[in-house]
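FIELD: query
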Amino acid sequence: MKPAIYHCISRVVDRRFVFGDVERERFRIFMRMQENFSGCRVLSYCVMSNHFHLLLEVPPMPEGGISDEELLQRLMATNTEAFVAVVARELAEARAAGRDTLAAEIHARFSYRMHDLSEFMKTLLQRFTRWFNRTHQRTGTLWEERYKSVIVESGIAARTMAAYIDLNPVRAGMVSDPAEYRWSSYGEAVGGGPRGNGKKARAGLVRACMSHHGAGFEAERWKEVSRIYRRALGLALERRSGKAETGKGVARPQMNTAEALAAEDAGGLDSALQLAAMLRCRVRYFTDGAVIGSKAFVNEAFAGARERFGPKRRDGARRMKGSGKAAAGVLWSARDLRLRV
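FIELD: result
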């Protein structure tokens, strides 16, 4: 069973602009904690002033579950050492007594919240809300409604969605270069993040760009894969660390292996450049399209959820229009949006 990828969005109640630097940094900390606990992977993210975007890969739980050692390691991401020590003692005593059923019950107390989109989002939003309300002496809900999610195919769809997410502060007029925005995956990847390395962000973006091509594209390939991602963002090659230049007329260097695969995914270099230009606009399909990917992928998702659609509908894939027109024929949507597209 393959991992599933979701674009998740949630907004502050009344869409108030309440997230400053401290709040955005705290949200990122909680997001990374939940990532380390859950086994899910953050491919791309952006925390804005009143909402956030998250591209999340949710792998299935491994057959046979996870080991005691991995369970304890994951618990360290969200719990105190004293708490984890108690769980470790319980597990050790159960194993020593040959009580595997009891050990399985101990695992189940925590594992039901792992490898699960709903549990990831619920825990993240609740944890941040409790911190925010305590910090700002307020009570009640912080989020205007349940988070929205869009299923995203790996490959060009995931890469395009990741770039769309990282370009949020550019579309909002906050920065001219996404590398300048600290609370996003690209900003963290090139700027180093709060701990000065940005490895988590780079690993996520590499997976967003190339994981569909199988093994061989890990975080260490960032230097090569980053050229793909900069092109998806509409940026020229970096001239120095952490900086990128935009504009037309930039000489195109010979493509590396990863770039050649990416251009093939997009249907050629010209198509890839058209997609990059499209991402400078708001594309409602990426937040309301339900499923985004190739025609075959969207139709497969439609067949798996046939009961949710009307009896007259024969297939799921819908060609993108309006601001999403540049993706027509490359990416498809499960919803045929008619207004504000």
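FIELD: remark
Residues 68-111 form one domain.
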